[in-house]
Amino acid sequence: MSFRPRSITEVRKNLQGRDIPLSLIEETIKLLQSNSLLNDLKFAQDWVANRSDFHPRSQSALRLELRMKGIAEEDIQKALEIGLDDETLALLAAQKYKHRLKGLNKIEFRKKISSYLSRKGFSFTSINPVFTTIWNEIHPGSENGVSINNEEN
User: Fold this and answer.
1) Contact 44, 71 (CB under 8 A)
2) For the CA atoms of 49, 77, 75, 73, what is the dihedral angle to 10 degrees?
3) pLDDT 10s digits, 124-142
4) What is the distance between the alpha carbons of residues 89 and 122, in angstroms, rounded to a whole number?
5) Are the CB atoms for 136 and 142 separated by under 8 Å?
6) Average pLDDT of 86-115?
7) Where do the H-state alpha helices sit in the chain?
8) What digits encode the pLDDT tens for the residues 15-24?
9) DSSP letter (8 states) at residue 120
10) What is the distance between the terminal CA atoms of the chain, rounded to a whole angstrom?
11) Model pTM?
């Protein structure tokens, strides 16, 4: 727990793997909860905030990650309510990735950015506006996605 916060399920699995009696595991978990060292809602909120800041993913991908950590659906929903919407998260992810795409024509650029964002769990409805925004940031002289320098569209 000193490396990063853990969910109740993670702590329980870790302790079970050490052949500790079930009664002692439950007692330990209750003690950790009473001392505010173990809280699934706070864990989920911190997870969403950290992912949004450093490794943006879609809300559906975040939901899946939290389920895999053993977080209850109610806590997942509360944690995602304070997070950003998918289009904003997709834009954050694309901002971190766009430097790798400079020099590509529009078709290659669309394919790469769409592929990258899809792997992060974003849908087409989130990806399409982000593609346009990032393309126009990289190619500021283009209007409506058509470059003034006659680059391939």
Assistant:
1) yes
2) -130
3) 999 999 999 999 998 887 6
4) 9
5) yes
6) 93
7) 8-16, 22-34, 40-54, 59-68, 73-81, 86-97, 106-119, 124-138
8) 999 989 999 9
9) T
10) 51
11) 0.80
